[in-house]
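Session log. Operator J.P. requested a structure for one protein chain; no other inputs attached. Running the standard single-chain path with C-alpha cell output.
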Amino acid sequence: MPSPSQITLPKLHREFFAIDRSDAAWQPVPATAGRIEEIVLADNLDPATGTGSRTRLARWSAGALIDRPVVHDFHEEVFIVEGDFVVGCDAEGQGGETFGAYTFACRPPGALHGPFTTRKGCVLFEISYY
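Structure written below.
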C-alpha cells in the first residue's frame, strides 16, 4: 500500500472553509458581458490534457442567456440552488422548459445541451470533470 505522500489525488484536499458570498467574491465569466459570474471552489480542470475537475458556484442575473447549444468533452453535474433556469429556449431566450431550485442535471461528455436563460436569476452549483 502506498504511503500518504505517494498518493496522487484527483483534486486538492480542501477542508471546510467559509465561502465569501459578497458581491466582491463573484468574478465575471468571460464572454457573458457580466451577466454570469462565478466563485470557483476547487479547480484543476485542464481541457488541453483532458484531466482534472472544477467545482464552482455560478450566478446568472435575470435575463442572462447562452444563445446556442453547448457540447464539451467532460462530465458536468448541475444543481440549481435558487432561482429559475430555462433549458432549450431559442436564441432570444423565448420558450424552453423552466426548472427551479433543488433540480439536478447530469451530463456525460458529448451531450448537446442548451440554449439556456433565466427569467429571475439563479445560482447553480456545478461540478465538471474528466
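Operator note: DSSP finds no helices and ten strands in the chain.
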